Amino acid sequence: MPSRLRWWVLTLLFLGTTVNYLDRMILGILLPEIRKDFELNDLTYGYVSSAFQLAYTIGFLAAGKFIDQVGTRYGYSVSILWWSLAAAAHSLMSSAFSFGAVRVLLGVGEAGNFPAAIKSVTEWFPKKDRAFATGLFNSGATLAAVVGPAIFLFLTTRYGWRACFLITGISGLVVLALWMMVRQQPPPQEDDDPVTPALTWREVAGFRETWGFSLAKFFSDPVWWFYLYWLPPYFYSVRHFDMKEVSWAFPAIYATAGLGSVAGGWLSGYLMRLGWSVAKARKTALGLSAACMPIAATAVLFDNPIIAIALMSLATAAHQAWSANLYTTISDVFPKSAVASATGIGASAGGLGGVIFSTLLPGYIVTYFGYTPLFFIMGVFHLIGLFFLNRLMGDLKPIKT
C-alpha cells in the first residue's frame, strides 16, 4: 500500500503543479483579449508581471518555514486554497491596477507549491528516485503550457476571457479536496540518513549549501519565467502570430519541456544505479542541461518559425531537466525537517532573479532594444548558476551538526 500510495501522492503533486502554472501563464496567453477591455501595454504588462513575481518571491520565505512547521498535508492545503481563490478573483477585475493587486495575492499563495511538493517527494521517495519523481510532478508545468492555450482559446471564444480565470480557480479547489483525502503518513525510506539534525529556519539560511542552491536558482529561474511570460508577446508582436498559431506553438515548445523534465530526473537516478556518486550524477545532468542553453538562445536569429520553435523547445526541455535535478539537491543535503525551508529560501532567490531579469528589465529592453539581447542573456544564466552551485554545494554530502 505505501508504494502504491506514494504514486497517488505524486499524481496529486502533478495536478497541483499543473493548475498552479495554468493560473500564472493565463495572463500572457489571453493578453490580446484582455487588451480589448482595458489598456495593458508592454511596460504595464511588465509591471503587472513584476507584482506577481515579487509577491511570489517574498511568499517563498514564509511558505517554506510554514510548511516545515505544520507539515505538507495542511501546509499545501492552505497554499492551494489561497491561490485558487485569488485565481478566480481575476474574473472580476477591470483594470491593470486591479489585475496587479490580485496577481500579488496569487503570487503569495502559489509560493507554497514547490516547498510542499519537494518536501512531499523527500518524505515519500528514496534518494535514487527523487529526481525522477520531481521531474514527473514538475512536468505538470509543461502540461499546463501544452493544454492551456487551446483550452483558453476554446473558453474565450465561447464564454469570454473571464471564464478562464474562474475555471482555473475551481480546478484548484478540486485538487485541494483530493489532497485532503490522503491521511496516511509517509513511511521511512531505506536510504535516509540516520543522522537527521533538527534545524531552525535561521540555521538553514546560514549554510553555504543553501546559498549555492539559491544562487543557482537566482540565475536559472529567470530563464523559465522569461519564456513563460514573454514568448506570447514575442510571438504576437515580432513573429505576428495570432492566438490560434500561439495555441499550437506553445504546446510544441512545452511538450518538449515535459520530456526534458522527466528525462533529466531519470538520468541522474540511472547514473546513481550504475554506481555513480550522488554529486557526480546530479552535476552531470545539470551540466548537460546548462550546456544546451546558449545553443537554444540562437532561436531569435532564425526567420524560419519551425527552427526557432525547435530551439525554444530545446531551451525549455533543458531548463526542466536542470530544475528536476537542482531541486533534488536540497533533499540530498538537508534533513526532511528542513527541506521546505531550504527550498523556500532558494526559490525566493529564484523569484528575485525573476523580478529583475524576467519582468522588470524585459519591459524596458523589449520596448527600446527588442528581444534579441534578452534571448542571449538568458542563454548564459544556467552556466553561471552551475558555477555557484559547484563552488558552494560541493559534493552534496548530507549536512551534519
Description:
With 401 residues, the chain is mainly alpha-helical. It is 81% helix and 0% strand. The chain is built from 16 helices and no strands. The protein is globular, with a radius of gyration of 20 Å. 58% of the residues are buried. The model has no long low-confidence stretch (mean pLDDT 89).
Helix content: over 70%
Principal-axes shape call = globular
Look at the helices and sheets and give the structural class.
mainly alpha
Distance between the termini: 35 Å
Strand content: under 5%
- What gyration radius follows from the Cα positions, in whole Å? 20 Å
Main sheet characteristics:
none
Low-confidence stretches: none
**Count of helical stretches:** 16
The succession of helices and strands, N to C, reads HHHHHHHHHHHHHHHH
Overall strand count: 0
